[in-house]
């Protein structure tokens, strides 16, 4: 469940001069049932949303308006994904640490998630996340 | 299944100075499983999205960015709902004719739907919709 399982998902677009339409169906465009939809808005330009990872939850992240970066880390490698199109989703599997930053003013970040909210599913500490992966905790002076 | 079953749904907000977060869970904040998510974007200011109704599909409509109006009609009465907050959804049950208009430039309209796409579930003709409700078709000179 490393970064090699992360991928951009090109979503369908119905083009129309009155506006474009994109749709996402559970178990079709994403490999899970959509149990929860959440979104970040009223985000100040340049804001940063902090790190966490999920034991089981999978998700698809979409820039509904504006742009931001998603930084993903599988405990061994880290990669930055720039999001600025409503018709590209970023699929994030379980056990990936993620942060979101570099928000443009007025951007909207939508996330489709495979599970209802469950605090027990979260890693909120990066060291615990590494231990959960079976990796040694990073020495304090490198953390 | 008339207009009396339409309602605004006040969605939860987690306030944060780095941006606000709203979440919607299937069978909790909406009375259905979320099988499909779709959204309208790149909408020119003042655009109008045309009428249809669904035999079975229920939906929640949210203004993710900007504003627009949703005009709902149950065959006997019509009502206009102004949408301009990310934390209010409009619940639309089955057998309600709907149009969306008065889009602000750059607005994003998100819809959570209870079913996958099925063209057979649509009424695209208002007269057929009225007949489906057991109402007489509107005389041509009043239509």
TrEMBL record, chains A, B:
Pfam family membership, one: FdtA
Coiled coil (residue ranges): none
Sugar 3,4-ketoisomerase QdtA cupin domain segment(s): 5-130
Gene3D superfamilies registered for this protein in UniProt: Jelly Rolls
Protein name: WxcM-like domain-containing protein
Annotated organism of origin: Thauera sedimentorum
């Amino acid at each position: 469940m490393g970064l090699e399982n992360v991928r951009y998902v090109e979503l369908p677009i119905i083009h129309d001069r009155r506006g474009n339409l994109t749709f996402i169906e559970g178990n079709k465009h994403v490999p899970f049932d959509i149990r929860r939809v959440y979104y970040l808005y009223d985000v100040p330009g340049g804001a940063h949303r902090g790190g966490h990872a999920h034991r089981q939850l999978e998700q698809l992240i979409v820039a509904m308006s504006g742009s931001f970066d998603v930084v993903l880390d599988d405990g061994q490698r880290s990669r930055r994904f720039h999001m600025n199109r409503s018709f590209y989703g970023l699929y994030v599997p379980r056990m990936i640490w993620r942060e979101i930053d570099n928000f443009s003013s007025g951007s909207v970040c939508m996330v489709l998630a495979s599970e209802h909210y469950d605090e027990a599913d979260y890693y909120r500490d990066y060291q615990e996340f590494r231990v959960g992966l079976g990796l040694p905790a990073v020495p304090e002076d490198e953390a």
